[in-house]
Amino acid sequence: MMERRRMDAALLVLFLVHLATALEVPLDLPQPPTITHQSPKDYIIDPRENIIIHCEAKGKPHPSFSWTRNGTHFDIDQDPNVTMKPHSGTLVVDISRAKAEQYECVYQCTARNKHGTAVSNNIVVRQSRSPLWSKEKIKPIVVQEGVSLVLPCRPPAGLPPPIIFWMDNNFQRLPQSRRVSQSLNGDLYFSNVLREDSRNDYICYARFPYTQTIQQKQPITVKVLNQDPADERKPTFLIPSGPSSSKMVLRGQVLEMECIAEGLPTPEISWTKNSGDLPADRTSYLHYQKTLRIVNVSESDAGDYRCTARNEFGSVYHTIHVMVKAAPYWISGAPRNLVLAPGEDGVLTCRASGTPKPSVTWAMNGIPIENSPKDLSRKVEDDTIIFSVVQTGSSAVYQCNVSNDYGYLLSNAFVNVLSEPPRVLTQANKVYQVIKNHRALLDCASFGSPIPKITWFKDSRSSTLDGDPYIHHDNGTLEIHVAQAHNSGKYTCVAGNTLGIYENHVYLEVKDPTRILKQPDYKQVQRGRSVVFECKVTYDPSLQPTVTWLKDDGELPDDERLIVGFDSLTINDVTENDAGVYTCIMNTTLDNDSARAELTVVERPDPPTDLELTDKKKRSVQLTWTPGDEHNSPIQKFLIQYEDSLHHRGHWHNLTEVPGTKTTAHLKLSPYVPYIFRVLALNSVGFSHPSFPSRMFKTEPAAPDENPTGVHGFGTEHDNLVISWKPLTGLQSNGPGLHYKVMWRQKLMESDWTKVTVANNSKFVVSGTPTFVPYELKVQAVNDYGAGPEPAIAHGYSGEDLPVAAPENVQAVLLNSTLSEVHWDPVPSKSIRGHLKGYKVYYWRERSLHKHNPHHVEKQILTFSGNRTHGMLPGLHPFSLYSFNVRVYNGKGDGPPSPDQQFETPEGVPGAPTSLVVTNTNLDTLTLEWNPPHDRNGHITGYTLKYQPVNNSNELGPVEELALPANATSFTLLNLKYSTRYKFYLNAKTVRGAGLAISQEAVTIMDEGNTQTPHSIARSPPRRPSHKARPVSPFGNVSSSSGEDGTLISWEYWGPEKNIYVEYIVKNSEGEEEWQKELVNGSQNVMLKGLKGGLSYRVRLVAKGHHDQPLHRSEELLVLVPAVTSRQVDIATQGWFIGLMCAIALLILILLIICFIQRNKGGKYPVKEKEDAHTDPEFQPMKDDDCTFGEYSDNEDHKPLKGSRTPSNGTVKRDDSDDSLVDYGEGGDGQFNEDGSFIGQYSGKSASRETAEGHESSEAPSPINAMNSLNSFV
């Protein structure tokens, strides 16, 4: 029962210890030493450098250090070459005055203070060694081809062992393969030797990693003979020997097993495990399957492994028995420090395993525990020490040593007895940021003895945070498994034990995740073009993301062609090196998101190479080639072309195509052709460049395989027969001396064939044949090697002649007034004397049956193809007399006409009257005058007149209709409404009905006593010639005037239409040019600003009424737009002008200096009176009072010539006379016609001139103006 309670207590203490594992004793509290850093157990040093043996520890108070060497105390002060670092136990051995060999010992460090002692591992110090190869003379090795061979390396033993490799004299690694490979011990094995293995520079190298030195063995010479080569044989193992072997490996290390076999042909090696499968994730094969490598070996890897060598003559296997041993290793970790309050219980556990099972020993403060002072509160039970009701002063460091035959483990763990109120070690007010839906961990690292209890609160601290979604960890951390936005806020952790409480505040911010919305897409792009990868992202606004692009999981190349934007990557001028996988990574301080896409760079394939011709036959050959690089786009097909250097030198012809998966083609060829082939490859981008041409392959000549096609017979004259054909090409000739055998005979006559041999031509003419006789024709190809196959018979006719007979029984049948049908009997075939093409009807209108119409004799022809016996004559004129005849025609021409015959067409409806005008317009009457229709098409039986009013909205009123006699040509309408627009319709009638109507519009005159209009019309409309009546125009008094702003058009209008336009066009413009139009509704004037100066325009006004009403236009007005004075070419860049300006500037400067001197003297300009009396027109005096230039005298001698530049202010001042016709200046209206006569209006002085005159009375112009004035006259 007591034992059970002790065990329960031990388990409870073990649980408490587990809770305390995260406790870290603050360094300001008393504590035993803890070793924090030490050198490795097996410490290999470089003999060229100082020896540094590390030993660092912490504790309160800070520990002191001592060392043992080979198990005895090491007095550091007695060795001048050894020093210890301050505040540390690390030893530094200065080997400049001593050899490293004397310090190759076993060292152990001890760190102690008043609370305990900690010890380090036993540190075995050994120096690295790289001994030289022993000098030896290696004899050349001579072997027969096919036997096996082993070249030994046997490097000198080094520490650590060297790395072995074989190279030649040029420091190039010797190639290895399934046949030749290096073993684990460095020897070079040949499963069988070949002639090419002969060489004199097989050199084994050993690289020693610590000293970074390389040692070289003497070169080995190998000579392979083939006098008596070895026979082919089944495999046998070179290593290991025998049917089985064994191997021991330690747990956690690397297991390497090798099997190298000889045989001919070279055997293949395979591996299996007898008792199970090989661990795929830890297994790899080296040296072409000859070495099996298993990393991180565990006990499960023990067992039997079988390697099998196999070739076509048999197989052999070897079994390797693997044993796994284990140096000691921790099961649940090394013992952990204990911090206990007085009166508490605790447990130290040192639980480890190994093969064989290790032993466990304990020590306290470096002294075996059995030799340590007795302590009733401590009990040792194998690998566990149990502490009960500890007291102050029981602090100590306990050492646990676990060892077996293969190693040991040494661990320090202290027991520290303290009474300490709680403290929170986590930083106060720390802000934790976490991504939404991720785990949030809020730390509350604390320390206290007894161990504090941790309680968490949020915001108002209304309740503790227990249950979902909160998880409390033993180390005080609060976990929120899936953080949401509402979890953000202030958190408080409270640590409390029996000695007090301590609280700390932290803050949690839950952020939105970073997500890539648009991932980059797979791209396939042609070389030289550009590509853009998009990577659009969303992220929390408080987190600034950074974008990183990777190529093939590495950094982007440093290339200016790659442009990285915030959400895109652009690659310009893509090359093949740009192909790969591009990864977009969006990083924030909390999370990241990534997406990747592949870029494939495609290009036209490289041309095929290595064209070779095989299997050569008379009419075929096999062509093979090697495809070029397809540049990431599979080859779809190959195009094979040939050049015929005999018949078409320099021209390549397509021969055939083969799929892209093939690299050979069987080509069918023609005889007597010197072929040269080339191949092109096609992928999705396009065709490659052609390959280099193949060698020439010339086929043997042979007789033609075919005859000419397209054999025809026809005549060009009435007594000949032309036989034509399509000649054979050079490729079809099959041999030299190509000619043709032409044969013919009359059809239906059993006569012999007439034969003739024709040179390489395409036709033959047979003379003296009867007219239009059928013939049978044959053309056969012949060359120097024989004739072609029997030709097929073609048919033809000898030459045609004009027909000799006319159609008979010709007659016409009238269908209506405009259509007639003509009938005839066909002409006999013998009279046609050729191929019947058809019949032609010649017909013409003799005259109209109306007495007023003239005669018509223009003939028309209608052609009816084929063997026709009738035809229609459409489009006839009614009431007319027609004549006609019929002729047959063949390929030669027309035959004789049939006798002329006549027929009369009946009456039809008439055309519209030729004119309709309105005259004698009054208040309520007007007169209509018209002329009869031009096409009466019968006897006119009368006229119909219709009319109706039209209001201001262009709406039509009721229609009135009148019947008028046939002989009427005018009619006066009475009782009409005044000031009203009317629309009139007039048409003529025959016995067949009414014809088309002619329409017109007119307006009755206003009643001046009863009507007031905005624009009173006190005058009659514009005068018209009395003999020619027209519709009344609603426009009057149209005039124009020109100004600086444009040309003003004015008019008066009294019509009802509201859509008024002004139209204008350049006078004498071509017919294709359109009138320009401006809408001017509601106004009676418009300013035209688009007219060009110096041109004459035709201007008119247009009133548009209802859509079926005619337009009303005013009389055209001729407007001349004044020209703007032209400018000469700028002379400011001319040399002479620059020189003149410099001279004037110098003169002005001199005058200014003189003026300045005179003012200082108080006098006047001495020549003032003289210049007033006699003014020089080329010199401007200066005013006395302000030293400015006086006014320029512009007399008649200095007026600008025609075409000269105007002054810069745009005016030239006239003299006082009024004889001038025009003011020179901008905006003048005067113009001249082409003959030099003056047109236009006199204009007043321009504003610019008035301004200039105003300056006359105020002050003189400045010197700059003077120069400008002078410039205008130059």
UniProtKB/TrEMBL annotation:
Molecular-function annotations in GO: cell-cell adhesion mediator activity
Primary subcellular site in the record, as a coarse category: membrane
Xref: InterPro entries: FN3_dom, FN3_sf, Ig-like_dom, Ig-like_dom_sf, Ig-like_fold, Ig_I-set, Ig_sub, Ig_sub2
Cell compartments where the protein resides: Cell membrane
Entry's transmembrane regions: 1136-1157
Keywords: Cell adhesion, Cell membrane, Disulfide bond, Glycoprotein, Immunoglobulin domain, Membrane, Repeat, Signal, Transmembrane, Transmembrane helix
One of the protein's GO biological processes: axon guidance
UniProt family annotation: Belongs to the immunoglobulin superfamily. L1/neurofascin/NgCAM family.
Protein name in UniProt: Neuronal cell adhesion molecule-like
Gene field: LOC116038769
